[in-house]
Amino acid sequence: MENNVFEQMAKRYDTEERIELAKVIVKEVRPELQNSKSKSLIDYGSGTGLVSLELSDLVNSILLIDSSKQMLEVAQAKISNRGITNSKVLFSDFTQDTPGLKADIVLLSLVLLHIPGTKKILHELFNILNIGGKLIIIDFDKNENIQHPKVHNGFSHEELKKTLSEVGFTSTEIKTFYHGNRIFMNQDASMFKSISIKS
């Protein structure tokens, strides 16, 4: 009975469009996690785990963090149903309070655009990373067609690089890897991957 509730919830969150987009992101992130079998990964703003649960075979452990309990319930149900043994969920919102966590890799997939204080959250994530740790950000390129009071209209590579270096990251590579139709607030948009290292 209980599983059905989660199935329904998962169906509501995991729309076909979201699943397709997650597949594109997973394909792009997987190569970044080669040789990470001994590493711990935090997926901040994990949602239902569409991206990070597809990466669980590449790392030692995954902690899915989200500020939505419902999303995490769906993620937990997936973890149980699939018998994934190295993944856990944590209900938390780092914009309010950061638990004393440490990780080798932090993944931020289509999350930054929802966070008003970009620099503050990047600072929190910098502090969580171990030395030599990697921050992987997937988000939308700046898009002038989008105006929304609660969402950044994407990010310019130069500005993001500047912010990441102000926060303390030593090297950042950013590249656009995907163009899609109506993937960002019903507008055509492109996504970038940013890799930053804390040395």
What does this structure look like?
By secondary structure, the protein is of the alpha/beta class. Helices cover 31% and strands 30% of the residues. Strands 3-2-1-4-5-7-6 form a seven-stranded mixed β-sheet. α3 links the parallel β2 and β3. The termini are far apart. The model has no long low-confidence stretch (mean pLDDT 93).
Distance between the ends = 49 Å
Helicity, as a percent range: 25-40%
Q: For the residues shown, what is the average pLDDT?
A: 93
Per DSSP, what share of the residues sits in E-state strands of 2 or more residues?
25-35%
How would you concisely characterize the structure shown here?
This protein has 199 residues and is of the alpha/beta class.
Structure keywords:
single chain, about 200 residues, alpha/beta, Rossmann fold, 7 strands, about 30% helix, globular
